Amino acid sequence: MYHIPMLNIKNKPSQPIIAVSILSADFGQMAMDCHDVINKGADALHLDVMDGHFAPNLTMGADMVKGVRKHLPDTYLDAHLMVERPQDYVEQFAKAGCNNFSFHWEVTTDNPERNNRVEGVNATDLIKQIHDLGMDAGLVINPDTPAQALEKYLDQIQVALVMSVWPGFSGQKFMPEVLAKVQWLRENGPDTMRVEMDGGVAPETVQACAQAGCDMIVSASAVFGSDDRQAVIAALHDGAKYWPAALR
C-alpha cells in the first residue's frame, strides 16, 4: 500500500494540498473508498459534519472520524463542522483522531445576524480549546460572509476556509464570486495560514482557486463520482500548479 507521511500544515506551504471530501464516498464501504483516494494521490481527507440545523443535512460524527482514523492512521483528517454548537464536539473529535477542526464564523458571538436559537460561541476561546487538545484550528465563512469577518483571527488559526457553495449537500455548482475573498485572505493572513476552498471544486474550477491563492483545495463529487478517480485527482494536482510562484 502506498504510504503518505502525515501532513504538518503549520509548515510554510510549498504547494497546494488536495483533500478529498468523504461526503461523496459510499458510506457502506467508507474505509475502502478512503484508502482508494489516498492511494490514488489525495493528500488528505475532508470530513463534512452537519447537524441538520446549521446545514439542511445530517451527515457524520466523531464515530466516523474514529473509524477512518483506525483504518488510515497516518492520513490528515480535516473536519469541517457545519453545526450550530461546535463547542459540543471539540473534545470527542480530538479523541477520535481529528487533525484539524474548523467551525463557522456564522455561529460565533461576532455574528449579530445568527439565528435566534444559536447561543453563539466565543471564537477565540474555542480556538484555544482546539489547540489545547492538540488539533489545528480553522474558521469557515459562507458565500455571503465577507473575508474581513476573520481579520482578527488570522494569526490564531491554521486554516481559513471559504465556502464556494452553500453548506448542505455535495455536487453543487462552484460560485466563482468568492475568489476575491481568497485573494484578500491570502494578502492579509500570515504566510503559514492555509486558505482552503470547499464546494464545487473540480478539474474545471481548480485552476481559478489556485491562482487566487488557495493552498488547500477540497473536492468531493468530482472524485467519487468519476470512474477514474486517479485521473481526476491528478487533474486537480495539475490545476493546483497554477498557485502563484510568489507564495511558494
From TrEMBL:
Binds 1 divalent metal cation per subunit. InterPro entries: Aldolase_TIM, Ribul_P_3_epim, Ribul_P_3_epim-like, RibuloseP-bd_barrel. Keywords: Carbohydrate metabolism, Cobalt, Isomerase, Manganese, Metal-binding, Zinc. Coiled coil: none annotated. The keyword tRNA processing does not apply. CDD domains: RPE. Its EC number is 5.1.3.1. Gene3D superfamilies: Aldolase class I. Pathway: Carbohydrate degradation. A divalent metal cation binds at H46, D48, H80, D198. Substrate binds at S21, H80, G168, F169, S170, G171, D198, G199, G200, A220, S221. The keyword Zinc applies. Its cofactor is Mn(2+); a divalent metal cation; Zn(2+); Co(2+). GO terms for biological process: pentose catabolic process; pentose-phosphate shunt. NCBIfam families: PRK05581.1-4 (NF004076), rpe (TIGR01163). Belongs to the ribulose-phosphate 3-epimerase family. This is Ribulose-phosphate 3-epimerase. It comes from Poriferisphaera corsica.
